[in-house]
Amino acid sequence: MDVSKHYWIDVAVQTPAHSQIGGLLSYRCAFEVQPGHLVRVPLGQRELLGVVWAISDSAPAGMPEKAVRDAAGVLEGLAPLDSAWRQLVQFSAQYYQRSLGEVALSALPPQLRDLSSEQLARRLKKQNTERTVHTQTGPALSEEQQAVLAQMTSAPGPFLLFGSTGSGKTEVYLQAVERMLQADPQAQALLMVPEINLTPQLEERVQARFGAEAVVSMHSGMTPAQRLKGWLAAHAGHARIVLGTRMAIFASMPHLKLIVVDEEHDPSYKQQEGARYSARDLAVYRGKLQNAQVLLASATPSLESWHHSRPAAEGGRYLRLHMPSRIGTGLLPKVRRVDMNHQAKKAVLSAPLVAALQERVERGEQCMLLLNRRGYAPVLHCADCGWKSECKHCSAFRVFHKIDRTLRCHHCGMTERVPRACPACGNADIAPIGRGTEQLEEHLGELLAHVKRPDGTPIRIARIDADTTRLKGALESQLAQVHSGEVDILVGTQMIAKGHDFRRITLVAAINPDTALFSSDFRAPERLFALLMQAAGRAGRDARQSASSEMWVQTFHPTHPLFEALKKHDYPAFAASELAERTAADLPPISHQALLRADARSQDVAQGLLNAARETLEAQLSADPATAELVMQVSLYPAVPMSMQRVADVERAQMLLESPHRMALQKVLWHLHGVLHQLRSAPEHKGVIRWLVDVDPQAI
Ligand code: ADP
Ligand code: ZN
Ligand code: ZN
Question: Which PROSITE patterns does its entry note (predicted)?
Fold first, then answer.
């Protein structure tokens, strides 16, 4: 064999978690490849798909040449993943503390792994044609929309579009795409949404504007074949617009020129397993990398983005753009607070709200009731002995679902028939405490049974939540009923508050939003405010009805500043007061956080690993003058149980790391990684099931 024809490649492959942080596997290669090519390589007994990361003419240092195995082959016909894509993956792996191979491979469509070059060639022949973009003209822009687009041409960004619900943000995205396509016939745009199933309307609007051919979707609800097809079209540059959820941030788009992150505040942009990346934050990074414009948009921006878009003179890095008015003569709904202290004790719905609902339905208008808890009641209770419907496996109560008379744990899934009598004392009189959407729907039905629609037919109440939408297509058909006016009152969880362009709803009510005011999670008020503003945004979207539209809030704390700000639709005031509190308490976005988590059969074992890691790390860092400063810059807190302490018989513990310096925190996390690898093999930590790091966690 002519050895001079060989060279060596470093390949990113998916290996078990934590085993290869930053690492790549080396192979000998006898065929021609470039960085970014997909290759098949042997690992143990298996053959895996990997991404060529680097090429060199010499064997890897410290490794006998014979020990290096041969790469099996390259996936032919597929252009290499470009350097921007590889850099994005590399950065994500490093920043979120996962292996390069894991991030790279999970960013590719799963079907690619099992495809031979011949099969791939067949797929490509289907679709290897330029796709035409037909741009339909959009409506004439409002002054605010024009101003925003003008600013986008005169500054590099990133931009934060702070625009009211119904101010025409989507139209701005569409026209920004149109301009981009005019300026550069090859250009590609990425439109990201938090949950694609909730926004079929956006898909329709984008396709109607640019033609179905030019648009591909990317989200987890697609079949593997659909995902592969869309991915290939984007990779080849044929798909001009990719519409997707957070995973789409890793789409290979060689001509990417514009990234839009719609509802950028939405927590769904943060991945909650594997590499726990924030697609919103990566959008900003990727924009810089590929010289693409980045537009984050929301009516209630995340405090992070709001803070980043403060004036440049104060250190702001994003440019804030404003669209305060609704399109046309549309007004935002009037916010009414109902003081529940003055209502009948235990009343679920206040008398004035019931009257208002009746009046609206009789006029032929729609109403929406928001209650962020599904099921019939969150807990069953025995008044005699104090028994409650706890889950045996989790630190949570099992929820009573009346429809099939079950007690269900929403965390581990454990489901049982409702007992006939108290399992502890035999008392037959066990009762639900609190209420969920199922009970609210039932209760409304009783209260408003006599109410008729304008045509004399009886009132129709419907419910949309995770329980009613389990089956494929259920959500779509239920939404269609709301849109067509078949439903008079819609009851639901936060699912119904997001994004929908309901044209007939004139009244929205939040039934019991108070719990979030006193949560231990410092982000709870931010989430609540966003949810209520979003919910309010569902009312009066038809300008003709907007003047009489209302957002009701039933609360025991009507003078709470959060509700005061809501009443004025004053997000900036709310954000200012929240940011002042965060600043005082040194919380994000002023500081940066990371969580180290450990799972075990007991809290002691889980916390044991975390506390040992902290002590070892602090000793290690202090001992070396080069790292001693890090100990001062990063606070490591003692291990504590997670707020949801036990799930499916697994005890969960966490340790918080906090620092005003992002880089210092990153460095500490890297050291921590090494420490954990050492500790993990010690006998006293054998009981740890897993550990993981969550950088910029969304809930602590
Ligand atoms: P947002 O995304 O801010 O909630 P949309 O872009 O969905 O707002 O706009 C709200 C409604 O106004 C939509 O029905 C949209 O078609 C319409 N609209 C948006 N911009 C214009 C415009 N310039 N002229 C007329 N109608 C518009
Ligand atoms: Zn459980
Ligand atoms: Zn009992």
Answer: HELICASE_ATP_BIND_1
